Inverse folding.
């Protein structure tokens, strides 16, 4: 079982729709969770981070965390063609022990159709 | 621009040569991380450093790879006697002190081995 799993996609949604990206993780002790966006040939760009169960909203983006189910998701409302990219889920398993390595999923490719 | 600065952006080396990749963290960030992204693969953690200290090198290959973050100057990732399999994008990220701080990535160095 991979430590962080994402559906590779592509996930195709029409412009203006809600895109829902999902991620599961295997280490129940994981404490912090991040979503990065990566355009082809570019570097990862931080979109959202979440530490507590529940929802966290920032503009068109909402991150959702359910630690009991070991599940984190990213919702993108009013999707735009410029949102087309690969979305990477990253987990920090034990930051307070000094081990701050992020474990990344393989990413979900999102395509927003105009 | 106060972002994470990496140079060079592209580096070409012949097999057996040495590669040196440099990273200057964002202003106010004292923690540096190196990640590698092989073609068509996910991001993999390599090493986490603070000034003059390697905190976690659990992702570093045991041979040929080394990293430092001196008191003055950028962090350096050094690859000795490069082989074709070292061809990848190498990303540096930085974060401020404190647990659960998000990591911000530089533009990366694309290393090509001839």
């Amino acid at each position: 079982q991979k430590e962080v799993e994402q559906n590779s996609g592509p996930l195709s949604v029409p412009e203006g729709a809600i895109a829902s990206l999902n991620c599961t993780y295997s280490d129940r002790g994981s404490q912090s969770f991040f979503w990065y966006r990566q355009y082809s040939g570019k570097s990862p760009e931080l979109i959202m981070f979440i530490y507590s169960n529940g929802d966290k909203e920032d503009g068109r983006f909402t991150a959702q965390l359910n630690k009991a189910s070991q599940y984190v998701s990213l919702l993108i409302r009013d999707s735009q063609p410029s949102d087309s990219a690969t979305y990477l889920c990253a987990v920090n398993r034990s930051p307070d022990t000094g081990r701050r390595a992020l474990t990344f999923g393989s990413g979900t490719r999102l395509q927003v159709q105009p | 621009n106060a972002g994470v600065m990496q140079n060079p952006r592209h580096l070409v080396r012949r097999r057996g040569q040495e590669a040196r990749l440099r990273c200057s963290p964002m202003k106010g960030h004292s923690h540096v991380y190196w990640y590698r992204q092989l073609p068509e693969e996910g991001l993999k953690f390599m090493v986490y450093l603070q000034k003059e200290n390697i905190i976690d090198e659990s992702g570093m290959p045991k041979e040929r790879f080394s990293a430092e973050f001196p008191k003055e100057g950028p962090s350096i990732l050094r690859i000795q006697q490069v082989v074709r399999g070292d061809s990848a994008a190498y990303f540096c990220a930085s974060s401020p002190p404190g647990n659960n701080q998000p990591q911000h990535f530089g533009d990366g160095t694309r290393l090509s081995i001839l």
DSSP finds no helices and eleven strands in chain A.
